[in-house]
């Protein structure tokens, strides 16, 4: 990713009256959208949303029952992605850095709402894509600076494996449900590196398309979908044979992909076209595009993406609550989290986040 010009931006603008309700530490209660019925408190999934505010070096913990931010927790500079442990008790953030490359992971105990530890992964730098392994004791995280995938023990803080990707700008990572393989998307090489996590070795590099960035493994472990941001396509790979099966057109600038828990849909956020594309996974067909209906903030020159995408709010990070009914999309250039109703396939509401929200995660814990 290009580097942001300055860490400090102008003060946050006064919240719009459209978001008036409980204002707490810069995050507000959800805004009801015209045409949607029911009360937010009774229809929203329970649990906690973790929002990384990359220009503020912070993580917001949001109570989804009320839509209110509980608190902000300090992280390292430029937090980009977050992984939540299988039991929902820990969240680990990759601190990518801003002008100076980052080299730390922040581990937050969600029950105590405190930083448990900061893990230094030096000399590896620019940590980005991150996923918990099934044991809940370790994560895998990409290092763009040294073109590798690291396996890190959360309790000891030790790097237990370092596997080279043999590719440029190794960015996002996805792990199969059985934990045996990891797939690393390489922006600079337009490819995915497949890694055997049992033996900690690289198996293969698969060419997908120019600007391969987002990657996700289907819930049944059979397919891998990769968003090729420059090629405006989504590649579908067979997770067993490691062969590319097809490319699905998807404009404009597809940047992330996420499967619903039941495997019915794949959601793709598109930074340039300012929408989320919904694909039927079994048919591999686009069924709907949902515009974010927001505009970029007025201080674009002080942001990571600057004015590269014009007035687009730049939807990037995606997380889906455990019941599969709601998705949360970080609109990084608008400081908004858009909530999608995955039953009605429409916008259910919005949350005002900190500056430049990017990575988002969900925990089933209801913390107070």
Short description:
The protein has one domain: Methylamine Dehydrogenase, Chain H, CATH 2.130.10. It is 1% helix and 50% strand.
Structure in words:
This protein has a single domain (17-334, 352-363), classed as YVTN repeat-like/Quinoprotein amine dehydrogenase (Methylamine Dehydrogenase, Chain H), CATH 2.130.10.10. The chain is globular and about 45 Å long. Strand 3 and strand 4 (58-63) form a beta hairpin. The protein contains one helix and 30 strands. With 368 residues, the chain is an all-beta fold. The model is unreliable at 1-42 (pLDDT under 50). The chain has a four-stranded antiparallel beta sheet with strand order 5-4-3-30, with no helix packed on it. Strands 6-7-8-9 form a four-stranded antiparallel beta sheet, with no helix packed on it. The chain has a four-stranded antiparallel beta sheet with strand order 10-11-12-13, with no helix packed on it.
Percent of residues in helices comes to under 10%
Q: Characterize the main sheet.
A: 4 strands, antiparallel
Question: What is CATH's topology name?
Answer: Methylamine Dehydrogenase, Chain H
Strands of the widest sheet, in order across it, are 5-4-3-30
Q: What count of domains describes the coordinates? A: 1
Stretches with pLDDT under 50, minimum 5 residues = 1-42
> Care to count the β-strands?
30
For this structure, what is the CATH homologous superfamily?
A: YVTN repeat-like/Quinoprotein amine dehydrogenase
Helix-strand category: mainly beta
Q: What is the CATH architecture term? A: 7 Propeller
Overall pLDDT? 88
């Amino acid at each position: 990713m290009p580097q942001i010009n300055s860490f400090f931006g102008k003060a946050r603008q006064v919240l719009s009256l459209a978001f008036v309700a409980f204002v707490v530490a810069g995050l507000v209660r959800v805004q009801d959208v015209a045409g949607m019925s029911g009360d937010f408190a009774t229809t929203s999934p329970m649990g906690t949303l973790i929002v990384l505010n990359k220009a503020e070096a912070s993580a917001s913990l949001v109570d989804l029952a009320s839509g209110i931010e509980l608190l902000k927790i300090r992280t390292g500079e430029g937090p980009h992605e977050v992984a939540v442990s299988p039991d929902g008790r820990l969240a680990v953030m990759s601190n990518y850095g801003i002008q100076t490359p980052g080299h730390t992971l922040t581990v937050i105990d969600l029950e105590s709402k405190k930083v448990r530890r900061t893990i230094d992964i030096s000399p590896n730098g620019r940590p980005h894509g991150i996923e918990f392994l099934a044991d809940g004791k370790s994560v895998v995280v990409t290092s763009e600076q040294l073109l590798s995938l690291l396996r890190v023990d959360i309790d000891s803080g030790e790097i237990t494996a370092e596997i080279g990707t043999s590719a440029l700008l190794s960015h996002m990572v996805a792990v199969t449900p059985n934990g045996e393989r990891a797939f690393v998307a390489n922006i600079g090489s337009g490819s995915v590196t497949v890694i055997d996590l049992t033996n900690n070795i690289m198996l293969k590099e698969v060419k997908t398309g120019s600007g391969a960035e987002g990657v996700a493994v289907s819930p049944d472990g059979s397919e891998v979908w990769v968003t090729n941001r420059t090629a405006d396509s989504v590649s579908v790979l067979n997770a067993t044979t490691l062969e590319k099966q097809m490319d699905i057109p998807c404009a404009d600038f597809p940047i992330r992909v996420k499967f619903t828990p039941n495997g019915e849909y794949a959601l793709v956020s598109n930074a340039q076209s300012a929408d989320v594309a919904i694909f039927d996974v079994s048919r591999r067909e686009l069924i709907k595009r949902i515009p974010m209906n927001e505009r970029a903030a007025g201080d674009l020159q002080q942001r990571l993406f600057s004015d590269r995408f014009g007035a687009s709010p730049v939807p990037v990070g995606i997380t889906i609550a455990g019941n599969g009914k709601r998705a949360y999309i970080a609109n990084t250039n608008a400081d908004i989290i858009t909530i999608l109703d995955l039953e009605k396939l429409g916008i259910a509401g919005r949350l005002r986040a900190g500056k430049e929200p990017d990575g988002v995660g969900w925990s089933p814990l209801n913390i107070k």
